[in-house]
Specification:
Helices cover 49% and strands 10% of the residues. The protein contains 16 helices and 6 strands. With 351 residues, it is of the alpha/beta class.
Length: 351
């Protein structure tokens, strides 16, 4: 099993193709509508043209990558659910019974479930096993993982993007599963965005007021204990992050290097995207934000990236459930470019 090199991947990430963007824009302006009247659909068509270098891009095979990992910080009582739910939900994904499976079937997408750090041993013919370790350490007492483990998780994410590209996947979405993972996500965001912990910590799986205060205190303690370097995203991921966060960051980097659009889900996925963009700023152009999560810190993560989501459905499930709902909008943008008549072809007078 090969593991991709992070720095080599970063060097392969290029700015979006401006010529393809301009070509798509000209095509859109020739269609039978006032210029810009389809709003974000037109913006989406232009962005994807720039990502792929193809002004007439058609949606290819698509996949949602669900990275799963456990978190030692659950020992601090930061989640309303027990840690064993992570592994149980992985089996649910593999059995096709989770929300993401239902939504993926509706949109014709594949669910790729990855064990990058679940506590315990999992085995299934459809499980992608990339386990770095059996869950992170309790970041309130020691670093979540070593730098080498964080880099390994990022490398696995990059390699997975390469493998899926070789299989013909041309559109990716990020998903995750990990009981307690809003805690490291809030910690990473607090450090990278230099924002107070209280502003970015939400209730996750539904903790009560006492649990919320405990969660805030745990994150403050971990940040004070490890002093992660805000200028080094890998250091932040290693000290107060999670394996699925690092894996998703790598997936985004790998996809950007292969010129594949990546639809990002909610809070955890967006924090992973922020880490990826701190490693390789050019990766931002390859991100398509899907929805606004109800999780408190998501607005801050999106703001830090300068991204505006397309949907607001008051969701906070994770799994990639919001990202997959953006697939039909992406297909709609492509169909507009390919199927809508031009003024000339339809014999319609221009304004």
């Amino acid at each position: 099993m090969s593991i991709a090199n992070i720095q080599e991947t970063v060097l392969q990430i290029r700015p979006l193709d401006e010529e393809a963007k301009q070509s798509a824009s000209r095509r859109l302006d020739r269609l039978t509508k006032p210029p810009g009247s389809l709003g974000k659909l037109e913006e989406l068509a232009i962005q994807i043209a720039g990502i792929t270098g193809d002004a007439e891009w058609k949606p290819p095979a698509k996949a949602i990558v669900v990275m799963a990992g456990d978190h030692g910080v659950c020992e601090e009582g930061v989640s309303a659910f027990p840690q064993e739910v992570t592994g149980q939900m992985v089996h649910n994904f593999l059995g096709g019974g989770a929300a993401i499976n239902v939504l993926a079937r509706q949109t014709g997408a594949e669910v790729v479930c990855v064990d990058i750090g679940v506590k315990g041993e999992l085995a299934h013919e459809r499980l992608v096993s990339r386990k770095v370790r059996h869950g992170t350490a309790n970041m309130a007492k020691e670093a979540a993982m070593t730098r080498e483990e964080a880099e390994l998780a990022i490398g696995h994410g990059i390699q997975l993007a390469n493998d899926l590209a070789e299989q013909g996947i041309g559109l990716l979405a990020t998903g995750e599963m990990g009981i307690g993972n809003t805690t490291p996500s809030a910690a990473v965001l607090s450090v990278l965005a230099d924002v107070d912990v209280e502003e970015v910590v939400g209730r996750g799986t539904g903790i009560d007021d006492a649990g919320l205060l405990r969660k805030q205190a745990t994150i403050r303690k971990a940040i004070a204990l490890h002093a992660p370097d805000s200028g080094d995203a890998v250091d932040v991921l290693a000290k107060v992050g999670g394996l699925e966060l690092a894996g998703l960051a790598g997936l985004i980097l790998g996809a950007a290097a292969r010129r594949i659009p990546v639809v990002i889900d909610g809070f955890i996925s967006t924090v992973a995207a922020l880490a990826a963009c701190r490693i390789a700023p050019e990766a931002k152009g390859y991100l398509i934000p899907s929805h606004l999560s109800e999780e408190r810190g998501h607005r801050y993560a999106l703001k830090e990236l300068g991204l505006e989501p397309m949907l607001n459905l008051r969701m906070r499930l994770g799994e990639g459930s919001g990202a997959v709902l953006a697939f039909p909008l992406i297909e709609a943008a492509s169909r507009i470019v390919h199927e809508m008549a031009t003024f000339d072809s339809a014999g319609v007078s221009r304004g």
